[in-house]
Fold these 3 entries.
Entry 1:
Amino acid sequence: MSNLGDHQLGIYLSGMFDGKTPDITTDLAALEDRAREVLSPQAMGYIVPSAGHGETARANRAAFDRWRIVPRMLRGVAAQRDHSTTVLGTTMPAPVLIAPVGVQTLAHPDGELATARAAAAVGVPYIHSTAAAHTFEQVAEANGDGQRWYQLYWPTDQDVCLSFLRRARAAGFTTLVLTLDTTLLGWRPADLDRGFLPFLHDVGLANYLSDPAFQEKAGGSPTMHWAQMFPHPGLSWDDLPFLRDHWDGPIVLKGIVSVEDARLAVRHGMDGIVVSNHGGRQVDGAVAALDALGPIAEAVGSDLTVLFDSGVRTGADVVKALALGARAVLLGRPFLYGLALGGQQGVEHVLRCLLGELDITVALSGHSSCGELSRASLQAQ
């Protein structure tokens, strides 16, 4: 048995014996600057910036800075540490998943296929976006025996919604993640100033364009048909029984930052939630996701599975989110930067570095597993 942090030693040994250094930086917080060097202006405009003036994205990072890890000494930390866990029936080597990110071909031609292969190679669960540039079936083949979930943008056409659910289930996706905070696209000046939305160029519509229920109604204008069925601001809590009736696995609601909404998720029989503000891409000036995590976990953490994303960049960030009550953390932009910089190998590099830093940070904090982390592991600034 090896520790996830042994990846660090492997890098040092490769440097010592072979003179090799990593092709991509191991400073995960610096990935964005490196990715800017290879991404096109259109790709940069879609992937990196956030809604409005970027206040929510900055708030996400500032929230992490307000917490400090409190290392404890002489705690008898195990030489062989085990961070493995099971979340909603899905086993994973550590409480980390690949967040659903659409249109990954903007970062690399292989897009979601490279990410799904990397996730399987490292053992990290992959969450497939409805807005993907590759289909359920293509991603499932690339992911092989890996663990995979499906993220739903609920279309206004229930026939298409049902078809998506059936295809995802048939392709081995086990947990359904319904995104709540993107029933409309946020105000994103970086895209607007370029007049660029990838979906209007048929990029990121692979699941739609390959779907028989969608094709039946799209006629000769599939892009415009998508534009009519994607916005769904009328979605309400009363719609959730439809999903329960047509999906036989766990259901997770993504985009919760309110304690009351978390309680409503419990009341409506959901299995989990993702405390998230979509990485700041939807509402400018919104509450930081990490600030919302602690109160939500305290209110409903014993009643359903609380997951987290938004602003996570490093293994230390993962430690803070877990200590504040998340059962697992979804990683978004960093893996996408790895994809841009090195395809499948770039994603694997980012995942192994994140898991390695997570393991070492947990151990140096005086713990033998992520499961030992608690609010007592942190100090507020």
Entry 2:
Amino acid sequence: MTASTRARLALLVVCLGSLVAPLDTMLNTAFPVITGAFGLPLRDLQWLVIPFVLAQSSMALVFGHLGDRLGHRRVFAIGLAASVLAHLAVALAPDYPTLAWLRVLQGAAVGVAVACAPALATLLFPPAEKARALAWYAASFSLATAVGPWVGGLLLQAFGWPAVFWSRAPVALAALLLLPLVPRLAAPGSVPAAGDGPDYAPGSRSAPRSGAGTDGVGQGFDWIGAFGLTAVLACLVLSLAEFTRPEGVRPQAFVLLALGLGGAALFARHESRVAHPVLRVEAFRSLRFSGVQAASVIVNLTCFGNLMLIPYVLTRDAGASIAAAGLLLSGYPTGSVLGSLLAGRMIRRLGWGSQAGQAWPARLMAGGLAGAALGLLLTSAILYAGPVPWLLGLSMLASGIGQGLFQVGYMEATTTMLPIEERGVAGSLVSVTRLLGIVLGATGIGWLQGLTQDYAASFVALGAGLGLFAAAFAAGDRRARRRSRPPA
């Protein structure tokens, strides 16, 4: 078997294990079923999303950092094993509070599993093929996101809402059993454990070696930063949930906000002083880097309206069955698959993969933001005219294509702007910004829908807001390119 074939097989295993995260879109089809089963208002759906996303985001950053030090494959294996147990446990929840709490466990396990997956995907191939590997990884992620709502609808009709959780345990178990196909890769700066094989990247001519003199986890790992980041994220997100309460703002909202902002300042100060920070805050001093991360949060926030609101439109207003709603809901993530594949084709045709540091990732991101905004506005127009199910599927497809284009450009930009020895952190940032956008969307879109009491008006606000941001992002990129040009 050639080195290139081994690398492709290993990439398939990495993509398979990563599916535990995007297959959570099965839950979106189950939203009407779960709220009906437990007698919940739409707004309470945030407690299915917030615990999962907070745990996944925190664990992705922490274990992305751990992967850079101990080895990405080992962390990936731990996450897969934990995912098998967590998905079985959450399916057994007897009531809604227990279900919400078990989503913390599920999110943590998934966060560990996906923390190092992008790093593994890129380190399996030589640098010239990194962009193509990222495109295939993004496409597989989007494909699972697309299949999730449809499969979720079928499982819901056959087995009820627990099936959208336990059905992912066999996926994680299969990837865990196939893990020997993934070689033990050591990122620069990592600490190989006893018994690890030679550190090499299939398909490359030279082997990345472990950094000499790097201290182990017990001595150098930033535990204070890891737990501090989790606390800061929890305080800020929970304060937003409190501020958007329909009953009115309670004093707890201001307390949580103050704790979150104060904790963020202390976290930034701490991270700037430790030798091995869990998140390098210096990178965020660059307006370009911070803008790219903000763009990922905003596009995922606004596009989450497809997965949060459209299931109710289809099952209540359009009269679709739960299985048909799941199939139509797949239009949005299917668009993301097409967008990712289109981006990969553009990279190959235009030779962008060999142009490190060039402007193409920003152009891809700007075009993707604009395309996603147009899709959201098209959805609002269809809702105003009358919810025709197949037209809603097409508008969600358009929105997804835009997001798929954006995602490939974003992953390339983020992994390029951070040093290679922090590839695990860069990969986890990809997951964290997406999840942060989703959790803000779960809270903010629920508040927006409660304010407008109209699905079409909510999509107008989401599409127009994303469109304005896309224009500002493109203008900022043009200014940055002009400033970076050498004087004539």
Entry 3:
Amino acid sequence: MIVFPAIDLKGGQVVRLAEGDMARATVYGDDPAAQAMAFAEAGAGFLHVVDLDGAFAGEARNREAVEAILEAFPGHVQLGGGIRNREAVEGWFDLGVSRIVIGSAALKDPQFVKDMAREWENGIVVAVDARDGMVATEGWAEVSDVPVHEMARRFEDAGVASLLFTDIGRDGLLKGCNIEATVDLARRTSLPVIASGGVKGLDDIRLLSLHAVDGIEGVITGRALYDGRLDLAAALQMAARA
């Protein structure tokens, strides 16, 4: 199981939001590249980066910061936030991004996502962000009438690498990952699932790792790392054993 330390970008700074609310951002640093290097030094081989401003704008807003991260981090970078057309996908892959996370466009233009998944094998991740079981889009500002499981099934045979499932109601609140809902989704789809939202400590990593056999590919964690509640090296060791 993969542990993805998260770097969320807002105005070029490293931040964490509470429940996806841009007005409830906590700033953890103003040097994203240095943060990426710190995660690498702790043993991380994967990184999850989100352009929060881009998620709302529908296009890149923290390009300079992302480019600095790509230059500094020796491992694989997974990037999301406002990537909604072919030019954006091609541009980021050309710069060295390993996987692209697509959320809003996956709901509104699924054929685009399927086309990209066929063109870049194992390069596209579909974000299934949920509020009360329904898919949310536009930086989580809008909630659709599409259930999470239905959204997941639309991409089972599309060639996407995995699904990234986030329980918005827990994101950034250290309430603990919604393991029940995440495992349920993994069992109901043939695609690997990455858990996100609410990780508060090592126990979340342990419980998720027990379900690697059910299709849990990885887990994204942010605030727990920044607040010192989760030791990255210990989390990586536990995940590796899974």
